[in-house]
């Protein structure tokens, strides 16, 4: 069997989120970090997810990286291409969702694609083109305070129209509820009217099933990971995908347990607070990190003193919006984030070398920095911890046993995620 799905994800945790849903739906999935430079053994792989760090970079850089990933996936004969972005659709008015989607469409010679950011099981739904997080509109969900991509407009048709010169349309719930044939006919009508991008209403899993049936043979689909859980059933119906048992089976985990958290989302802040009610943690301060490396030295000492115990160790830079704003005002927005990422990446590199074998990282930018620092190029996707977050494994040079790694998007996971994740792994 050939590679069925080739996905391009705009950050590392988003890539893992999609890969997790594909595995849960029975696709053997490999996540690669950046565009591979050498040959890979893909003999038992159904889906490949290329993880980029292109969500918040300049639009032209995002386009270049995404087209390089597309070239590689086409070389692997992927039947369908999936452009994966966050279920909160976070991007600036200059991009990068619209510009990257346009570039991918041009390269594929396609005239239209859909936008399906919804992930109902995680509370992300779309109605009349408006994105909800739980029962709140996107711009009232906490995402309006995002340090890099604040989202102040829940109307996705309007939001995307600011990112592309092409017409943006809507596949509304009543049409979707009528079934795949009617949905496909509506998309065809919009294409004849030169509507290039179509926001899709999605309220529940049934809507995702209809969308998968409508879109499985499209050259390009875009969205969050929710659509990824529905597509494999359609691939099987088309005869593209075999039935596989234990698509997410990994080797036994070993080594000490470490949590590195750089996310400042509401969900992660609650997870940090819950963890600290049971265990100790070490807080990093971006302002102190700017002055010297003393905090890194202290954090290493804190971790080394505790990693021999059975409890996981937490080192975190997660902070409330007020504290984040204070650091950004003093250091600059980019510099504040970069200092935290560098510090957590350095801690990961040193502590994994000293015996950490189970590593959980919270936050997309932090995950990207940690994966880069460790020199990770591939991740085999395993079992789910919470919706959107699986354990993965990778082999590092000079290490006999695999490193078990979980990359958590800031907004994902139940409040007890940090403590429960390691129980799931064991």
Keywords:
15 helices; 3-stranded antiparallel sheet; 21% strand; alpha/beta; 18 strands; Molybdenum Cofactor Biosythetic Enzyme, Chain A; 2 domains; Rossmann fold; 426 residues
Kindly estimate the percentage of residues that lie in beta strands according to DSSP: 15-25%
The class by helix and strand makeup works out as: alpha/beta
The CATH architecture of the largest domain comes to 3-Layer(aba) Sandwich
The domain tally reads: 2
* CATH H-level superfamily of the largest domain: Putative sugar-binding, N-terminal domain
Mean pLDDT: 92
The Cα radius of gyration reads 21 Å
Fraction of residues in helix: 40-55%
The number of helical segments is: 15
Distance between the termini: 33 Å
Shape: globular
The main pleated sheet reads as: 15 strands, mixed
The total beta strand count reads: 18
User: According to CATH, what is the class of the largest domain?
Assistant: Alpha Beta
CATH topology of the largest domain: Rossmann fold
Strand order of the largest sheet: 9-10-5-11-4-1-3-2-16-17-18-15-12-14-13
Low-confidence region ranges: none
Describe the protein:
The two termini are 33 Å apart. This protein folds into two domains: 5-237, Rossmann fold; 256-425, Four-carbon acid sugar kinase, nucleotide binding domain (Molybdenum Cofactor Biosythetic Enzyme, Chain A). The protein is built from 15 helices and 18 strands. The mean pLDDT is 92. Strand 16 (378-386) and strand 17 (389-394) form a beta hairpin. It is of the alpha/beta class and 426 residues long.
């Amino acid at each position: 069997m050939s590679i069925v799905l080739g996905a391009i994800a705009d950050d590392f945790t988003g890539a893992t989120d999609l890969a997790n849903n594909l595995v849960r739906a029975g696709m053997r999935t490999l996540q690669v970090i950046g565009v591979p430079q050498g040959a890979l053994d893909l003999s038992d792989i159904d889906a490949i997810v290329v993880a980029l760090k292109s969500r918040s970079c300049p639009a032209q850089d995002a386009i270049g990286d995404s087209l390089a990933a597309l070239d590689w996936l086409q070389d692997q004969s992927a039947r369908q291409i999936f452009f994966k972005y966050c279920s909160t659709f976070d991007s600036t008015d200059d991009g990068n969702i619209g510009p990257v989607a346009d570039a991918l469409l041009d390269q594929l010679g396609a005239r239209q694609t859909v936008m399906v950011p919804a992930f109902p099981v995680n509370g992300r739904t779309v109605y009349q083109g408006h994105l909800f997080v739980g029962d709140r509109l996107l711009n009232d969900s906490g995402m309006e305070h995002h340090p890099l991509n604040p989202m102040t407009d829940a109307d996705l048709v309007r939001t995307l129209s600011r990112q592309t010169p092409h017409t943006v349309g809507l596949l509304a719930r009543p049409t979707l509820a009528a079934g795949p044939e009617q949905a496909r006919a509506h998309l065809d009508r919009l294409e004849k009217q030169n509507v290039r991008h179509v926001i899709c209403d999605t309220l529940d899993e049934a809507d995702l099933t209809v969308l998968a049936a409508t879109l499985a043979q499209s050259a390009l689909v875009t969205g969050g990971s929710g659509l990824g859980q529905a597509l494999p059933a359609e691939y099987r119906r088309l005869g593209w995908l075999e039935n596989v048992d234990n698509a997410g089976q990994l080797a036994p985990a070993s080594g000490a347990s470490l949590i590195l958290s750089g996310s400042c989302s509401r969900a992660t802040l609650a997870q940090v607070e819950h963890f600290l009610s049971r265990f100790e943690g070490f807080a990093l301060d971006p302002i102190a990190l700017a002055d010297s490396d003393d905090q890194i030295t202290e954090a290493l000492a804190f971790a080394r003193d505790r990693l021999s115990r059975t409890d996981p160790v937490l080192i975190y830079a997660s902070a409330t919006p007020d504290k984040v704003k204070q650091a950004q005002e003093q250091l600059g927005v980019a510099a504040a984030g970069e200092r935290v990422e560098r510090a957590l990446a350095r801690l990961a590199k040193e502590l994994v070398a000293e015996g950490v074998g189970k590593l959980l990282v919270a936050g997309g930018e932090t995950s990207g920095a940690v994966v880069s620092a460790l020199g990770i190029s591939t991740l085999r996707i395993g079992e789910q911890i919470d919706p959107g977050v699986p354990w993965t494994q990778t082999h590092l040079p000079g290490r006999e046993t695999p490193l078990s790694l979980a990359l958590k998007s800031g907004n994902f996971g139940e409040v007890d995620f940090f403590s429960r994740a390691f129980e799931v792994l064991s």
